[in-house]
Amino acid sequence: MSNAGSIIDIYDDYYTDGKVAAKREIASKQSVSHIEAIIKGQKFEKVLDIGAGEGAVLDKLNKKGLGKTLGAVEISTSGIEAIKARKIANLDSLDIFDGYHIPHPDKSFDLGLAIHVVEHVEHERMFLMEAARVCKKLYIEVPLEHTRNLGKAIRMSGPYGHINFYTPLTFDNLLKTSGLKVERLMTFAHDLAYEQHLAGRSKGWVKYKLRTEFLRFAPKAAVRSMVYMAGALCSSK
User: Which of 106-110, 155-159, 161-165, 228-232 is predicted with the least confidence, judged by mean pLDDT?
Assistant: First the structure.
């Protein structure tokens, strides 16, 4: 990832912060709902979370039965320890990795997840090709921060390690030029709980309504003006 050493330094103790855990817990519910919307009832026996953070998504996948066997790879030691502490019943493997080399054989997982990871990665295509080597299909989710106000996104996201900024078109192009076939790509607004966590109850409700209605009625203008998320289900070409 973006200078692997510096990223490891940034995230090594990242998941020991309780505030981060609260935010990620809410965000993970969003992401799992996005996965369910994208896969449309498809079943996957073995699921690998690539860049699993502190395990919030894994925990919800386990509770929902999305994947009979779960695996995880994570770049930070604090993330690994947090995942272990969750004692996730269906978690079969947990490994630390350097961001580019996943310690599993070719096509050993039915579905790989890279949720809010690619925006941190210096060599995006190397990362995605390695993920596709290990997984038959991939679900990839990124923030769509390349809006008219890109400067603000860079200032706000830079301290968290975001080095790549996407529109729906540049995200789609990244996937296709990484040797992936895009089966389904969707744009999502933040859900109400996430908006209220960040902005408070009243302001969060207003932001939620504005963002969702803008996306509903004028999707092209919306993604040029406000930050959303994109999720894509992909397979190898």
Answer: 155-159
pLDDT class of 64 with cuts at 50, 70, 90: very high
Region of 179 (left: φ > 0; alpha: ψ -120 to 50; beta: rest) is left
Read off the DSSP letter of residue 15.
G
| Cβ proximity of 37 and 139 under 8 Å | no
At residue 23, the 3 state secondary structure works out as: helix
Average pLDDT over the chain, rounded to an integer: 92
Query: In the numeric block, which tokens belong to residue 147?
Result: 């809006």
- DSSP conformational letter for 121: -
Joined together, the tokens standing for residue 71 give 């695996």
Question: Quick check: is 44 in a domain?
Answer: yes
- In the predicted model, what is the mean pLDDT of residues 168-174? 98
58 assigned to some structural domain:
yes
What is the model's pLDDT at position 24? 85
- Please give the sequence-ordered ranges of beta strands (E in DSSP) within 10-158, or none if there are none: 46-50, 69-74, 91-96, 109-115, 135-144
What percent of the chain stands above pLDDT 70?
92
Instruction: Give the contacts of 85 (CB within 8 A, at least 6 positions apart).
Output: none
Do the Cβ atoms of 89 and 62 come closer than 8 Å?
yes
User: Angle CA(49)–CA(133)–CA(54) in degrees, nearest 5?
Assistant: 15
State the total domains in the chain: 1
The predicted pLDDT at position 16 comes to 57
Give a yes or no: residue 47 inside a domain.
yes
Distances (CA, A) of 203 to 30, 164, 196, 209: 19, 28, 7, 10
Radius of gyration of the CA atoms of the chain, in A? 17
